[in-house]
Specification:
Number of domains: 1
Shape: globular
Number of helices: 0
Distance between the termini: 22 Å
Pfam families: MAM
Helix content: under 10%
Strand order of the largest sheet: 5-4-7
GO cellular component, one term: membrane
Strand content: 25-35%
Structural class: mainly beta
Protein name: MAM domain-containing protein
Order of helices and strands: EEEEEEE
Largest sheet: 3 strands, antiparallel
Domain MAM: 5-134
Length: 134
């Protein structure tokens, strides 16, 4: 059967993300926070929460890491759909795959310098014979 979990950040960081993620330069906010755009989430809701890079990390990088997922198989594929907003010309958003217990992270998708200041949606499909984090 299909199983999916929605991360909307309304109450707290979602179960799929490691607890440590928010200590690495991400803040949970909404469009009314007074921090500038975006002024709503991807559905136009001003009071809905999303994660945003704190101003201290604008010049560096910050990661969001999932918890460990089990290996995928033909009947168990993994799709992750996310909404993102890039407001800085120099910003790059990349998605990496780390198979456990390896240390290396393989880049599986990235975007930079495309249409700014609008919400976009992207779906990645993960295939891994080992346990993995994204």
């Amino acid at each position: 059967g299909s199983f999916y979990e929605k991360c909307d950040f309304e109450t707290d960081p979602c179960k799929a993300l490691q607890e440590l993620s928010l200590q690495s330069g991400w803040i949970r906010r909404n469009g009314r926070s007074g921090m500038g755009p975006p002024y709503s989430d991807h559905s136009g809701n001003e009071s809905a929460y999303f994660l945003s890079l704190s101003s201290e990390t604008w010049s560096s990088s910050a990661a969001l890491k999932t918890n460990v997922f089990l290996p995928t198989a033909e009947e168990h594929t993994c799709q992750i759909t996310f909404h993102y907003w890039i407001s800085q010309m120099s910003g790059t958003l990349s998605v990496g795959l780390q198979k456990l217990p390896e240390d290396t992270i393989t880049n599986i998708w990235q975007v930079s310098g495309e249409l700014q200041d609008q919400w976009k949606e992207h779906t990645i499909t993960v295939n891994s014979t080992e346990k993995y984090e994204v």
